[in-house]
Amino acid sequence: MAAGVGYLTFHVVAIVPVIAALALATRSRLGSRRDVLTGTLVLAGLALVYTTPWDGYLITRGVWWYGDGAVLVRFGAVPLGEYLFFVLQPLLVGLWVARFRVETTRPLSVALPERALGLAGAGVVAAAGLVLLGADSGLYLGSLLVWSAPILAIQWAFGWPFLAAQWRTVLAGTLAPTLYLWVVDRIAIGVGLWTISARYTTGVDLPLLGLPIEEAVFFLLTSLFVVQGLVLYVWLVDQLRTVETLDRQSLAALFGGR
């Protein structure tokens, strides 16, 4: 591993080519999927802002660390490679999701009890995280669940029935990027790019792959955040556009009839 460029090399080898390939593969769809691309950029910005404090806290606690020469520069506790990943992962997932259709004819209205159920589901995730935080071995997984709960609360309260109706897109959009990121993360750990603390993790590994369950859950949740966010964003924008069109047609009919 070349000194000082390890993490950046990881992006160049494992992440950027996949993004480029997906961009080329979906280039014929990009014009018609402009909402997906816009939503991806919005989510990438939000991911950068929301993830940085949590990530920096875990690094300072020693939940993981980096191999010798793997980090070129840090901003605070967080390496440049981490900041890049906060943006690159949404791009990777978003370009993959652009391949799938989102049926947006369902009205935006969601009943209050359904919204409450979405909030309750996120509350269960938060509660599980708080329980895990009671022991050192639960720091990574527990903080991950607590950190993820507000995002899940927003997404599920806003439209979990719509997400359930679009389950094929959500499932296909989430699983493929997650599986790929699991594999490359396991390789990165294997070559010593980063090391996960035994003290602050449960010691449970993903079967067959041998990836710490904390890492597996992280990539699953973050990919899910992007997919759900994009599906909801496309639904919202399309419904607002439909309402705007109907309003214009009503005005045209009103004034045209006078």
Question: Can you offer a commentary on this structure?
Answer:
The protein is mostly helical. The protein has one domain. The chain has seven helices and four strands. The strands form two sheets. It has a two-stranded antiparallel ribbon. Helix 1 (6-25) runs parallel beside helix 3 (80-97) and helix 5 runs parallel beside helix 7. The longest helix has 44 residues, at 213-256. The radius of gyration is 21 Å and the shape is globular. The N and C termini lie far apart (76 Å).
Summary, kept brief:
This protein has 258 residues and is mainly α. Helices cover 71% and strands 4% of the residues.
List keywords for this structure.
globular, 258 residues, two-stranded antiparallel ribbon, mainly alpha, 7 helices, two-stranded antiparallel sheet
Strand segment count: 4
Mean pLDDT: 90
SS-based class: mainly alpha
Q: Output the radius of gyration.
A: 21 Å
Topology of this protein?
Layout: H1 6-25, H2 34-61, E1 64-66, E2 74-75, E3 78-79, H3 80-97, H4 112-132, H5 139-165, H6 167-190, E4 194-196, H7 213-256
Antiparallel strand pairs: 1-4, 2-3
Helix pairs in contact: 1-3, 2-3, 2-7, 3-6, 3-7, 4-5, 5-7, 6-7
